[in-house]
Amino acid sequence: MAGDLLDNRGRGDAHWNWPSIHPEGRKFGLIAVAISLLVLLVFGWGPIGWPLLFLSLGVFAFFRDPERVVPQGDDLIVAPADGMVSLIMQVDPPEELRVDDGSGMGGLPEGQVTRISIFMSVFDVHINRSPIAGVVRRVVYIPGKFLNADLDKASEDNERQHFLVERADGLRIGFTQIAGLVARRIVPFVKPGDMVGAGQRVGLIRFGSRVDVYLPAGTDAKVLLGQRVVAGETILAEAGAQKLIEGIKQ
């Protein structure tokens, strides 16, 4: 049950459940099923209808929304997306997360920071979650292109949506939903002023995309390039901690 406390010494109760389907995706799944049944029952086009029906199940699966066990810790930064760590780079945060937006709330500081990019294929869960607990200070949508989300320039050219979350002690984390080749809709669940918990659902991107996370200055990633991460569960970094971590692909 959501909200249950579990720990690394066996406290709590864990069992497998079928993941729920997010309401945003139910209409798409039902439309796909209706079209499939129309083709099968009305027109009798089995060679077309059965693949369409199978595709309908894929639509429901795309919008699955499983529960996650979110690690609790003051300095922990958790993954906002499921997928593969495709880029880890030193970059300047996006201008939209840095400049004064007129709200009186500051943005990210100037200077290069570590950016972790998580690529989501159509087979990954596409519900995105907040990396930290705090107040949502900014939600900025920017229209753009639909380049391959694996490319570095997708951070600046593609349709995207920036989030800025501020922790109670003033630490700010910026992260960005980026549309990809197939994605055509970025859907936010939160707005400026909302309080969010670490790992709380904040939005989704339909059909293949990427999420960039901008770590605080002086913070290194605790994940490796090519590693698969799980939204709300994988610890991306610990604020203020710097250490080289190496891995071997095998």
From TrEMBL:
Reactions accelerated catalytically: a 1,2-diacyl-sn-glycero-3-phospho-L-serine + H(+) = a 1,2-diacyl-sn-glycero-3-phosphoethanolamine + CO2
EC number: 4.1.1.65
EC top class, as a word: lyase
Spans through the membrane: 30-63
GO terms under cellular component: plasma membrane
Location of the protein in the cell: Cell membrane
Record key words, sorted: Cell membrane, Decarboxylase, Lipid biosynthesis, Lipid metabolism, Lyase, Membrane, Phospholipid biosynthesis, Phospholipid metabolism, Pyruvate, Transmembrane, Transmembrane helix, Zymogen
Molecular function GO terms recorded: phosphatidylserine decarboxylase activity
InterPro entries (alphabetical): PS_Dcarbxylase, PSD-A
Site, Cleavage (non-hydrolytic): residue positions: 208-209
Chain positions with Pyruvic acid (Ser) modification: 209
Catalytic residue list: 209
Main location group: membrane
Record membrane topology: Peripheral membrane protein
Processing and modification events after translation: Is synthesized initially as an inactive proenzyme. Formation of the active enzyme involves a self-maturation process in which the active site pyruvoyl group is generated from an internal serine residue via an autocatalytic post-translational modification. Two non-identical subunits are generated from the proenzyme in this reaction, and the pyruvate is formed at the N-terminus of the alpha chain, which is derived from the carboxyl end of the proenzyme.
GO BP: any one term: phosphatidylethanolamine biosynthetic process
Cofactor: pyruvate
Pfam family, one: PS_Dcarbxylase
Pathway: Phospholipid metabolism; phosphatidylethanolamine biosynthesis; phosphatidylethanolamine from CDP-diacylglycerol: step 2/2
Cofactor note: Binds 1 pyruvoyl group covalently per subunit.
Subunit structure: Heterodimer of a large membrane-associated beta subunit and a small pyruvoyl-containing alpha subunit.
Function: Catalyzes the formation of phosphatidylethanolamine (PtdEtn) from phosphatidylserine (PtdSer).
NCBIfam families found in the cross-reference section: PRK05305.1-2 (NF003678), PRK05305.1-3 (NF003679)
Family label: Belongs to the phosphatidylserine decarboxylase family. PSD-A subfamily.
Protein name: Phosphatidylserine decarboxylase proenzyme
Lineage: Bacteria, Pseudomonadati, Pseudomonadota, Alphaproteobacteria, Sphingomonadales
Gene: psd
